[in-house]
């Protein structure tokens, strides 16, 4: 199942510097492993924001939920999920 996921990050200004550094390092490692595994298909930065738009290809809703809840930055995120379906005008679908 394909999902578009928009993630807006809002780290607290007073977050301890060591906690911030550790959290960001764990987030990067986790997301890159999911990319290598093929579940996190692509990730795009949204210009001018601390946000990204990502495409996930996972077996079901529960797997996406599990991935998102395990993001180290999850406590500092607002997340919008949109399920995706093939568009009938997409020439790559032929």
* N-to-C SSE string, H for helix and E for strand: EHEEHE
Spans of at least 5 consecutive residues whose pLDDT stays below 50 are none
Distance between the termini: 19 Å
Share of residues in strands: 25-35%
Query: What number is the mean pLDDT?
Result: 97
Number of strands: 4
Report the principal-axis shape.
elongated
Name the structural class. alpha+beta
Please characterize this protein's 3D structure.
This protein has helices at residues 17-36, 61-69; strands spanning 2-9, 40-45, 51-57, 77-84. The mean pLDDT is 97. The chain starts with a strand and ends in a 10-residue tail after the last strand. Helices cover 31% and strands 31% of the residues. With 94 residues, it is an alpha+beta fold. It contains two helices and four strands; from the N terminus they run E-H-E-E-H-E. The relative contact order is 0.29. Strands 2-3-1-4 form a four-stranded antiparallel beta sheet. Pathway: Aromatic compound metabolism; beta-ketoadipate pathway; 5-oxo-4,5-dihydro-2-furylacetate from catechol: step 3/3. It is an enzyme of class 5 (isomerase). It catalyses: (S)-muconolactone = (4,5-dihydro-5-oxofuran-2-yl)-acetate.
